[in-house]
Protein 1
Amino acid sequence: MSPVSHLASRPSPGEPAAAVRTAGLRVRHRRTVALDSVDLDFGPGVHGLLGPNGAGKTSLIRVLATVAEPSGGRVEILGHDIRDHRRRGEVRRGLGYLPQDFGYYPGFTVREFVAYVAWLKEMPADGVPAAVERAVARVGLADRIDAKVRRLSGGMIRRVGIAQAVVNEPPVLLLDEPTAGLDPEQRVEFRELLRELGVSSTVIVSTHLVEDVAAACTEVTLVDAGRVAYRGTPPSLAALGESEGGPGDHPIERGYTAALRAHRASAPGGALR
Amino acid sequence: MNDWHASDHLMTRYADGSLPESDAWSLETHLERCGGCAVRVSRAVRATAAEAVLAEVREAVLAEAPAAAPAPAPERPAAARAHRWPSTGSRAVRVLWALGPAVRGAWLPAVLLVAVGAVALAHGGGFAHARPWLLALAPVVPVAGVALSYGPHADPMHEITAATPAAGLRLVLTRTAAVLAVSLPLLTLAGALLPSTGAPNAAAWLLPGLALTLASLALAGYVGLRAATAVTGGAWLCAVLGPVLTAPGGLTRELGLRLSSYLGGAPAQGGWAAAAVLSAALLAARRPAFHFLEKS
């Protein structure tokens, strides 16, 4: 179908194989195009997904989480095409996903919530209790593990969401706005956790907070109007900001605006949306 | 076992880092099995500048430790768990988890209300025609249960669930089984407790109920669960109640006639059985569609 040769040629010899790849990815919601011809690959590390609201960040994460169906193109996760339904179980066992919004059953405690997701992820039952306690401790909620989820604050519920995402120690972790609702101290702790997770896993984090990207990400992908506007590292984006002089208070913010402007100027019709 | 042990010279060179890498590796392999040499090596390492660094690290770690590890009081969680129902790993809890949102939520009280209400109306209220009405409504009860069991509109945890390997047809079927396991016996039992007044047998709705449920699932592979259940449940209600409401004669008499023709006799029941089998086959064929079952 779509050419994948340009993807195959990308990683240099020493580089680990990409855990997540898209080629010509297209996602449509009714009449609007959320993503268009997106070619990306992500290997181990923390990848920041930046972009204006409505740029397609959540659409991309939901497709990678195998929750939403792409309308075209190819998505490969852990070496398997996600359209191959026989392998989908295998792919999903290797995923961790924090949605932008999620609900819970009213009676659930933190422990039950995370254990329930571990059960859905088909983790071996004997390892679940320990894995749940580990995941909850990782997000700093060990002292609230037997509290009802509905009694927790928004930021804490967000952290419960992160705990369920990491409970199976997934090689591919997809976090949609994980720092929304966290206070500054929790965000600092969370970035620490991100860096730790990024050592062995492929972590894709959508965010609109440039500080998160600067502090925790090894790579940045900028999405605008459904297309990839920029790929690089936080320092390269900051350097772009310094040389192009985009507006902003933070070097990365200046890089962000400069890259967006450059992309909109070059993409035909891109600035119209 | 092994009578080779590291010489002092070797250890000194290992400690100060002047030992070639390959020799150092073999020494390390030996140290993994020889406690005596390990003790001597650590003594040799401590004699170097590393001692100061180690001491510093140790101090730093100890300084952090009380803050970082407020021992997760072992008695408290255990005590908290003891009086809660079974711990999260137990089989009973997993069965509960498999039930899905309908059986855990408002659907279950609704089923109980229908069953108990029918019996109360017949025996307490003296309403003689409770059974035909129950038979007319019963087939849509499991269909409604299925509608409330899976998908973004029914399950608050759907977005998380959909990314897990459990998502898809298997989870839909598990939850459907829970819905059927609750509604089939309950409504049939309630029907049996009602005066018959010429209405079909209390179990006559079982095959239609099953067929409509399976048809909903099969259709869900094309249009999504919510639309599918609306179509099948709505079609049944229209077929049964439509003619009844427009008929000139007595309401209940007409209902009795409708039910007799839809539920009574071997040909009608055979037709429902065939529909159930056909729907199951269609469902199996549409299996992959259930991985992205979120058409609204």
Protein 2
Amino acid sequence: MTPPVLPRFEGGQRARVLSAALGVVGLAATALGAFRDVREALAGYLFGFTYWLGLCLGALLLLAIFHAAKARWPVVLRRALEVTAATAPLFLLLFVPLALGLRHLYPWVEPSADLGEHTRHVLEHRRPYNNVPFFLARAVLYFLIWGGVSHLLHRWSVRQDSTGDVRWTLWQRRLGGGALPALALTFSFMTLDWMMSLEATWQSTVYAVHVFSGAFVGALALMIIAGTATRDTQHFGRLLSPGHYHRLGTLLFAFVCFWAYIAYSQFMLMWVAALPEEVGWYRVRMGDGWGTLSLALVLGHFVLPFALLLSRELKSRPRVLGAVALWLLAMHAVDVAWLLFPSLYPGQVFIPWTAFTAWVGVGGLSVAAALWLARGTYPVPVGDPYLVHSLQVRPP
Amino acid sequence: MSRHWVLGEFASSDALVAALKDLRAKGFEQLDAHTPFPVEETFEALGLKRSKLPLLALGAGLGGAGFAYVAQWFANAVDYPLDVGGRPLHSVPMNLPITFELGVLSAALTVFGALMVLFGFPHVTHPVFDVESFRSASVDGFWASVAVDAEDAPKVEAALRELGARQVSVVAEGAR
């Protein structure tokens, strides 16, 4: 009997062109919006950018953690994680509009007179950290680290496809594990720089972990969806067994709980302390309009998926788990919107329409980039010595 | 009347699964399988019903959580109201951690206790372990066990032999 031959990933051209076209149209529409109101367009763009960058970095962190843990069961998922993570350099390009429009978004760039004396004093005190040149230098450093690590992990893995040399496994594990501290730190500082500094003075030490847990849920959901979407093709979805879905579902469940735990502990500590410089953030989000969004987030990002993912059978069923993952990917968008827009528009309940066009735009381009990176390579790391082990995974 | 267990050893997991299916078709209900490693097909072949444990755990968890919440509300808002810097006496966010913790604790303790009862706790062993050859269940033997009343034991014994069991033993419930 000859073993079935796994084909290289040659298709996807239509999907690639389609998503790239969607991306260009979305970004063009967002750019048109800038003629009407630059701040609105940038606010929407920041949402689309941070959403997709979060998924890319979530995949990179997941990949690095798998390498650090010498995990064998997820080997079959690794190529999908690698191409998702390796889209990081694209985001350097997509960062340019934000870098050009910093003063429209961040209050620390040119503090206006109506911020009040105290706030202006605090911003002046933070000037050595929060200034445009240092901000941009940090951004470049982040992209160097993300791009470098994800590119090497992807390249070494692809090289192993042809040679099957165990050395590449060792190198990937060293880099993945060794880069984790740098990845964690750059991710944290990225959230502080690009998201939290939308607030003039408010700060929270757990903010970065909140963003990370949301992005991690998103990356896991993305892998589940990629698997279920390619189930009937010749690509990696066909190789996933109920055991893989069960494990992914369990991780998803764990990080939905982790997200709720982090979000809640930040809320509880600020609520009970009731310090004037902290509670403003929640007063806005518990007010009339944004309060509804907060409640939707609690129910949709925690209560519902928690109840569903408790079920063991559900986690082993690709189709149902895929639906839950799709729901969580949508809820992750609500989470990012909840973090950003009340900070940008505290006085009113407002989400600019450019948020949708930018989401489609950045998303289309990043999906196209991931498909482009995957072309011509095998959909799973065929040279990895643990692939056989991964293919035999069963539900516990 | 004492319960008897009729044990039959099979050479492979496939033979065991086939035998279990056949025994069930013959109307024997109280079946069990003892294998050196988990054999997924036996779960189906045994026709196991859903465990009651998850439902018990859910009930206990909700009960514990409810009790914790009511206890905190009663203590802080009704029985001994204490104004701390103008904070509300009945404060939902502050009650949640304890509510969650007691919910988890009750569910966990209930699972632990219920498992003990289901395992038949004060008994720490089972009559089947008296059979010397049953040790092969941890090495290379695939055993089917059928719990029956004494008068049915010979019938099961014959059925097991017919199904190709390598050896058959009968154990009686005694002083364990």
